[in-house]
Amino acid sequence: MSVSSYQKNGQTLWQVYVDIKSKRDRRIRVQKRINGLATEKLAVAEEKRLTKELLQKLSELELQGLKWRDVIDRWERYQELYPSKRYAQTTIEDYTSLLRNWTHPWLDRNASDINRGDARALFNQIRDEGKSASFCKHLKNTISLFYTWGIEERLINGVRESPVYDLEIERDREEKLPEILNLQEIRELLRLAKEQQHPWYPVWVSAVYTGCRSGELQALLRNDVDIISREEAKVQNELPPEQRRYGLIRIRRNWNSRLKKLGPTKAGYWRTVPISSEYYWFLVNELKVESLGADDLLLPNLLDWRLGLQATILRGFCQANGITSVKFHTLRACFATHLIASGVPGPVVMKIAGWRDVKTMQRYIRLAGIEEHGATEKLKFSGSIEAAIEKVMTLKFNQK
Question: Among 93, 73, 97, 77, which Cα is nearest to 258's?
């Protein structure tokens, strides 16, 4: 705040400048200047009046809280300063990018001013752009997460809940069938990849036999594989399938292609995957695991893989060979679906694949149709029809 004089056309005039920053949030600032005052006494009086006016305005701005853009920034910085197991770095980036991209009309508005009507208009626009109900629900949950945090941290004032609270998301009119390869297509994929000596062949084999995520496969080392000897394997081959034990693979790490570093698995804990007989002989005969050093990578260190192009490579190969085009992560879905379809209990598949969300597993159970198997055997229509046809034919023969 200041009162000062200046000269204009040979006359001494006075000016007042008041600049006040919030102590609660240094980014909130109010300022104003008044020129052309005739006397110093008038300028001092004006300074007092102006200071009172701006303090009132500053108080109103503080009560409004931060802009939506600032809430997003603050949440991101908070997660960096106080990291937790709940949010991986990639999850933090995904959440903040999602909000900056899809709530763009809100960014420069005070978060406390955004209401249910704004939320409804936003989601109507998003649905008009063709986004699915599942995407909208994910966006809604993310908005709610940030708003709840902002309210708890007193960054959003004057409201008690998110503008998307209890907002209904209309269901998709038609649910899309998830990408999946049937058993024949998986066999064809692996057969053609081997015949063509495709560099990704070992990776695709490992994906369908272990259900690992791409980054988990990239991080596998020789000492993560615990297998029996060839002599022991021959003995195991003589046992019933449910009694065979060929070893385990420990999934301990995940390679993050975006951050270019190793980290924990997505679920945050290590797990084991039992080695099947077919995958055992692939490991021994194709990957020569017996001759690898303890710290060697189990699978090829492919440049396209390091660049995160695994989905592009697989889609291109499928399209070129007349196989249903799928992304890399679909191989994990194939692993789960075919295990469930073969009778392996859902909880066991969840444990092997490292899923925490039961809803995810239910989706694969529904896709496998395991809960419906045998249900239609109760229908005995064909016997009645055959009996009726036989009776008609008998009557015709007797008439002749």
Answer: 93
